[in-house]
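ENCODED BACKBONE
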Amino acid sequence: MSSDLVHGTSGHPVNGAAFDGSTVVVTGAGSGVGRTTALAFALRGARVLVTDADARGAHGTVEAIGTAGGYAVAVVGDPGAQEVADDVVSTALCSFGGLDVLVHGTTDPTDAEETLTRSVLAHMLTAGGGSLVFTADGHGVADRVASLDVAYRARGVHAHAVDRAADARPDERVAAVLLLAQDALDGRSVP
């Protein structure tokens, strides 16, 4: 487990839009759609915490975000381990002062979703809300996400699952994640 912080030289978030000042955690962000999702949030003004078990991939995403002028930090490790999940939350709070959005960018549901979600959820409930977005489509994911949304929406935490249609392009999935995360932040309660 390790972390690093990189920020762009521009001194401000890139293409400031919907996520200015928000902190977004993206799991599985070391490559593929997870990396694309992390970059998309950064390009819209978010401060991004990249997490992945692959150190090279995670640091590569942080570097790409920094090169684009955004702000990013990486936590390397398996977020299914409680120690890593706790490190994700504490790193987000220490580096960026908050934690607004958690995007599970992995392709299959794992213990990481359960462990990291519990750690992040505890902070979001105290802070007055946030957004949980799941991109995995395995057995029971939709039911778990619906249960989370019903249980915590009144307290400002919205949970959504991205429909991973077989014909959906990666850019369409990323756009859906951004839209769902923004919906939750727009409706966030104030503590």
User: Anything to note?
Assistant: The mean pLDDT is 83. DSSP finds six helices and seven strands in the chain. The longest strand covers residues 2-7.
